Amino acid sequence: MRMKVALKGLVLAVAAVTLTACSGGVVPEPTKSPEAVPAEYQPYYSQTLEWTECHDGMQCATAIAPLDWNKPTGETIELALVRHPATSSKKLGSLFVNPGGPGASGVSFIADSLDYAVSGAVQKNYDVIGFDPRGVGASTPVVCVDSAAQMDEFLFGTLDAVRESPEWFAQRGAASKEFADGCAQRTGELLAHVDTVSAAHDLDMLRATVGDRELNYLGYSYGTLLGAIYAENFPGNVGRMVLDGALDPSSSSFDVNLTQAVGFENALRAYLKDCLEGSDCPFSGSVDSAMTQIGDLLAGLDQSPITASDGRMLSSDAMLTAIIAPLYNKDAWSYLTDVFTAVFEGDADPAFGAVDWYYNRSEDGTYSDNSTESFLAINCLDYPVNSDPAQWASDAKVLADKAPVIGPYLSYGDQLCSEWPYKAVMTPQKVSAQGAGDILVIGTTGDPATPYRWAKALAAQLEGGHLISYTGQGHTAYNKSNACVNDAVDGFLLRGKVPAQDPKC
Fold first, then answer.
1. Measuring CA to CA, which residue among 429, 325, 423, 321 is closest to residue 377?
2. Collapsing DSSP states into helix, strand and coil, what is residue 373?
3. Domain span at 117
């Protein structure tokens, strides 16, 4: 998480970004028999979605939601959806899917990578629905910059001060405030309402609009937090829920930062072990010596960035993103080898290839979505931050101790949110979702982004939690690991079958 490395998952996203954050109180006409919800919510819950053909056989629709669920008669926002209709005449209902982020487009995830998202059996038996949460993509979006050049400057601009010096903190603080102010100016009041509790209320409304009594849900990465918050707030409406690559809702911002730093440090060591056993590895010696070489590389780039062919400067921060991005998936480790080999030769272009994939930046320098903007906006409302520089320094020492290579470059992540115009609305706390029934929680032992212990923690917190452990590397496991995981998930989604115990796949 640059602190942005946080929970940004494997994403294929497209955004329809406008500068209008909300509409003037356009409340949909009720067209269905209303559910037992407060009268002021009825028009939203009973609205009829107009589905139109899109994406080669899929269907798209737009729902209307209140900007503020506490003021449902006020301003409204739009929520974008895409649906792949079930091919069976005896479908089980709808399955809502969230790919993570926060800030990842569920519309693009389903439209562009349906087979990656869910199995063929699930596609046959469910209407698979992707949605862009509030603030994200084709829904009413968070907007922080006017141009790709401004985003480049925010992400890749280098500071002319020594790391952790007073001048360095001052420059970071000024850049953080400029970005935060830009978000407030361009997004408007929506910026105060992109928290996950509000998104969970949106999700309950969307469930009703498709005619489902219960929510069937598959959440990846950050999507597990959305699912857990939903189950805590709407336990009686939970159907079959699967949470893969789980977060622990009781974790603080620093807990998340520290756990991920250690997770990526361990993943980097696993990569190096594999690399050193091959013939084209740019490192030599032991894993420990290779880790030292990477630490020296990052320190060198901190002092003397490498210029890429497009003029961007590969600093230590950009290089860290280039390292982290391929660690999400073991299949990308060979590309990480190419990155290191090139950087050691003074070539920054392969590194920026990984960076651009991570940020959804196209070859022409434009950004295909607003995922970075929405990522930051959601995180700043979901996690209270500490604004005390002394505490930042203390936390930085812990990060450097626990993750000596990665940790120093993930420090001081609270500085941006400390400049945010709105305070966090959520607090870290355990969830139990009493009365929600069975919920599957999947954890991968070598997951660097959502470490395994979070899955164990969430499964233990949930009254109906069932842990599915996958021994392996990479981020998330369903439909991308082995038959053991896939059979457990499909058995639950299709037949309601719950494993008697953790199958330990």
1. 423
2. helix
3. 1-434
Express each pLDDT in 108-148 by its tens digit.
999 999 999 999 999 999 999 999 999 999 999 999 999 99
In a domain, 365, yes or no: yes
Distance from C-alpha of 165 to C-alpha of 397, rounded to nearest angstrom: 15
What domain count does the chain have?
1
Residue 447 annotated as catalytic: yes
Identify whether 368 is a catalytic site residue: no
Tens digits of residue pLDDT in 269-304: 999 999 999 989 999 999 999 999 999 999 999 999
Strand 76-84, strand 215-220: pairing: unpaired
Active-site residue identified among 84, 193, 466, 475: 475
10 Å CB burial of residue 184 (0-12, 13-18, 19+) is middle
Does residue 330 sit within a domain? Answer: yes
Among the options 94, 221, 251, 481, which is catalytic? 221
What residues does 58 pair with on adjacent strands?
Answer: 54
- 454 part of a folded domain: no
Angstrom distance (rounded) from CA 201 to CA 37: 12
Q: Rounded distance, CA 148 to CA 25, Å?
A: 31
38-75, pLDDT tens digit by residue? 999 999 999 999 999 999 999 999 999 999 999 999 99
25 falls within a domain: yes
Per annotation, catalytic residue among 447, 466, 481, 490: 447
User: 195 an active-site residue?
Assistant: no
DSSP helix/strand/coil, 64: strand
How many whole angstroms separate alpha carbon 477 and alpha carbon 315?
Answer: 32
